[in-house]
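ligand=2-acetamido-2-deoxy-beta-D-glucopyranose
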Amino acid sequence: MYSIIRDSVPMEYDNDENTWRRPSSAKVERSACHQIPRRSTTVAVVVLGLAVLSCLLGYCVLSETLPYESKTLRLVIIIFRHGARTPVNTYNSDPYKNYQWPDGLGGLTNVGKLQLYELGKKYRSYYANFIPEEYCEKDVFVRSSDKSRCMMSAYTFLAGLYPPSERQMWHPDIPWQPIPVHSLPKSLDNIVASTKPCKVWQAMYDETLAERNADPKYVELFDYLSKHTNQSMRSILPIDFLYSTLMCEQEAGLKLPEWTKTVFPGKMRTPFMESLAALAYNETMQRFYSGPLLKEIKQYFDAASEHESLDRSLLVYSGHDVTLVSLWRALGRAELLEPEYGASLVLELHEDVEQEAFFVKTFFRNNTKVEVPMELKLPFCDDPCTYSQFSTHIAKIIPDDWEAECGNTDK
Ligand SMILES: *[C@@H]1O[C@H](CO)[C@@H](O)[C@H](O)[C@H]1NC(C)=O
Ligand SMILES: *[C@@H]1O[C@H](CO)[C@@H](O)[C@H](O)[C@H]1NC(C)=O
Ligand SMILES: *[C@@H]1O[C@H](CO)[C@@H](O)[C@H](O)[C@H]1NC(C)=O
């Protein structure tokens, strides 16, 4: 509704203010950036009022318009998987080996772009009381895996999260504003994509894979898939790739070969999820794989809980299915997980002023359509989970010196 109203009145350039505005509109007060994020009840009342009003107008999607009301919220960390993509690779007998994917291999599709845009909008309304309406550099930090589909997902997420305010409109036809997304190159990224080489972890991962692959329950499936794909499928890792490829082809409306019917997704799902889980199988491996991300998260939480001047109140990470699965495991969850496109995990830091204590809440959204997030109870924490319990557990999974523990510094 907002954009329709916006579009119906032509904008003019205001040379004094260096911005586009509608001729009728009052001058916008300068820089909401310097204000403390609003957490007042008046905002909640206004938003609730708007929700009721939109109901009367027939736009009643209450769960979507009702924001998450919390005066105790201090810091929010959102970690999501990129949106729908094309296959990353093919297999020997793939009838679609030479299929021309318009978005290239491993590319974010339009469906994927829209998913993350919708997710950004969902979080905007969910945290309407907490995330300031105007984008301001000091409020938010966004870090992405360097993979194009993750960077692009981060950008469309931000388009949904931070539509430009009137003051921030810099072009009359483009209701979008640039927001920086930071990333480390693949060979240096041990935070989001966890692709930076780590010798000790690699040896543990190889060992874990070998153990999983030796499970007799897989013998029949390995034989069947090797025969039909015309390539070696004697490990859960190639099954993981095959599973993802078949999933993408199916979503693109391509008819899968007959032989897939008895195994996909069905029998292939568990080895697929085990392959994702193998990267951070136990606590030692989580130290290497998710430790640097947890370290960054802990630094922000520590600063907030020590009342240091907080320069960010929102952190966003754009990653992969394995980013979510590894973090899920590091948070003590043992269930195997298949994160959908745009699935997201949220960590919230709350302050109970009366008790003078900080608490952590964790939520998971299976996909970008979820209206009510699933609260995750952390097995190492009471309920509510105090920050001191949380940080004691997290500290165990954070390496003191990642490079040294990885054996990367050995001569
Ligand atoms: C299987 O692979 C071999 C070599 O890679 C190839 O010569 C053969 O044509 C393939 N068979 C099928 C059914 O794709
Ligand atoms: C985790 O798994 C690796 C590989 O199997 C193993 O070397 C390591 O000792 C395990 N750590 C724990 C805490 O079980
Ligand atoms: C997410 O999916 C799991 C099963 O995979 C289900 O138990 C859970 O209720 C779902 N949560 C939400 C928030 O949809």
